[in-house]
Amino acid sequence: MPTVRKDFFLDPRDRLTEQERALMTAMLAELLGTIADEIRGSLPPGSIAANDEDSQQLLRQMTTAGLLDESDLIALLLRRADEERIANAIRARSNPRGGFLQALIADDDEAISAASMALILARGRRRNRLGQPRIEFEDLSPELARRLSYSVAACLRQHVPGLSSKDGHLPFADGAAALLRARDDAKAVDGLTEQLVKILNRAGLLDERILESAAEEGDVAFLAYALGERAGISGSSAWDYLADGDNGRLVLLLKLAGVSREFAARLLALLGDLVGIGDLGTDIGRFDALDEAQARSVSEWLQLDNDYRAALRTLGGANGNRPL
Question: For the chain, how many structural domains are there in total?
């Protein structure tokens, strides 16, 4: 009953849609299945019977045990689902010219070319055979990767027949440890995106032309990191202000990034309704009214570590978000 009551009174704007829930569940099940396959592959012969449970069963077992109640994990799944939702909606309405990342591969600057190629290849690995988005093990934070690896290993160990509760644990723990040792943080897609936008910025190429190309193609992940780089804040903070753009949050990000009023108006018209903005005129007015001192104050706030801001929220000294 407490769960039903909580769900009943939940603001509809905060409730996952059926499409979001289905996509997040599919991505999570595939991630767990990938981790399980890697651990199984490292076990000595005969350590485990042939796999007769699929990733959905593993997902149900870990959910029931409370092993997936991880805020960082849910945030990552939701972000990927939002990226997909916003991108698909933009592409349906914008008639994009297409290929700005592909064009960068041909750039004379080898650093730009290599970084663009690395990002394109990484994104290709993050689509399954049906073209749906997936999360790679490297996309997890080190702490989350560790917890999930050992949790999956423990679940696999429970399904080995003929062993007492005290026996046979070491090969599974070793399998998780081997997976973690093989993990390469440099392959994380956010890190590759950040690397490219920094190279472009140093080369003086992170201009409104490339921002507009990214926006029209629905590449909101690149757009967020590019705006964050121009604003001097992290890509993850920029994403939060783009994807939850109401109450002046997207306008604030655009002001911090130093874009023109014309670009801001075009971007708001393109995706404003997809990120919670109901009245474009109000937000353009906010953009015009926001002065340099206000923008600088919020920029300094956003440069604070997320854990520091979270502590302030807990202490009640600030809301941690600083909308206009």
Answer: 2
Tens of pLDDT, residues 157-211: 988 766 666 778 899 999 999 999 999 999 999 999 999 999 999 999 999 999 9
End residue of a domain, out of 167, 187, 207: 187
Helix (H, G, I), strand (E, B) or coil at 109: coil
| 61 to 53, 54, 121: CA distances (angstroms) | 11, 11, 33
How far apart are alpha carbons 264 and 269 in whole angstroms? 9
Return the SS3 of 258.
Answer: coil
Whose tokens are 């009953």? That residue is 1
Task: Decide if 248 contacts 279 (C-beta within 8 A).
Answer: no
Q: Could you tell me if 122 and 138 are in contact, meaning their C-beta atoms sit under 8 angstroms apart?
A: no
CA angle 300, 303, 306 (to 5 degrees): 130
Same domain? 250 vs 149 = no
The Cα 28–Cα 134 span in angstroms is: 8
Domain with 245, as residue range(s), is 215-315
